[in-house]
């Protein structure tokens, strides 16, 4: 969990320990649009395929993504959860090794990197163990939910990996359909949005836009997704939320906020089944999502 002192730290942006400066509080530091990379649901593990999931291949798929992001010189790269997985016969030490391996590849991006927690990130290990082995740029210790500013935009990372009673996911002792954002985090979210009236982008693993889907899609959403959306809508500053978890991907708009779910890396064999994207946000707040491989491209005019 994050205490008040850590909340204050997480509302600032740091790179290599130095606070970024902006040309004006909410202005752009340069004329070209903000650009960042997104990738999700790698489920990396050194294990044989199971069904449509090719765990080992996620390492090479991420390598392709990182190389492209370095070539394109995006402002930062963020993964949206389920970063690693576990063996068919789970073992804590082995799972930690999987995490260290995929994190080392992720850090080959030559810029700021950020993580969103997914449910499989707490298979075989605790949330604290996961956080101890990853890096969120500018933070001395990775937090499970936090925010940062980059070039006139505000970014919020949420964690819905709690059971309804508010307890953390831990060593796989949870049902992935039982996910929840606790009251303490919701209060932090409201205050964070008040403190930062910049145009805002939200990242979360589980989906917030369940009502936009037909059928029983709610199992992919936090129990209190309606309340989370209401907080985002009340702020009036949230442009879009990026999500993972639902491997087929999706796109919806609810009350003027867009919800883009990126397709999973883990699904199916071969480079042609990779999935990652570059998000570009222009000065007029229009958004272009350029999908690579099987990721879907979108253009959103404001």
How would you describe the overall organization of this protein?
The chain has helices at residues 4-10, 57-72, 92-106, 127-132, 183-195, 225-235; strands at 14-15, 18-19, 34-39, 76-79, 113-115, 146-150, 153-157, 200-203, 238-243, 250-254, 257-261, 275-281, 287-293, 298-300. It is an alpha/beta fold and 302 residues long. The chain has one domain: Purple Acid Phosphatase, chain A, domain 2 (4-Layer Sandwich), CATH 3.60.21.10. The strands form three sheets. A six-stranded mixed beta sheet has the order 5-4-3-12-13-14, with helices on one face. It has a six-stranded mixed beta sheet with strand order 6-7-8-9-11-10, covered by helices on one side. Strands 1-2 form a two-stranded antiparallel sheet. Strand 3 (34-39), helix 2 (57-72) and strand 4 (76-79) form a beta-alpha-beta unit. The radius of gyration is 18 Å and the shape is globular.
Task: Give a concise summary.
By secondary structure, the protein is of the alpha/beta class.
List keywords for this structure.
alpha/beta; 302 residues; Purple Acid Phosphatase, chain A, domain 2; 21% strand; 14 strands; globular; single chain
The Cα radius of gyration reads 18 Å
Q: Could you say which structural class the secondary elements and strand pairing correspond to?
A: alpha/beta
Q: Main β-sheet, in a few words?
A: 6 strands, mixed
Number of helices: 6
CATH superfamily: Metallo-dependent phosphatases
Order of helices and strands: HEEEHEHEHEEHEHEEEEEE
Taking all residues together, what is the mean pLDDT?
90
Helix content: 10-25%
| Count of discrete domains | 1
Beta content: 15-25%
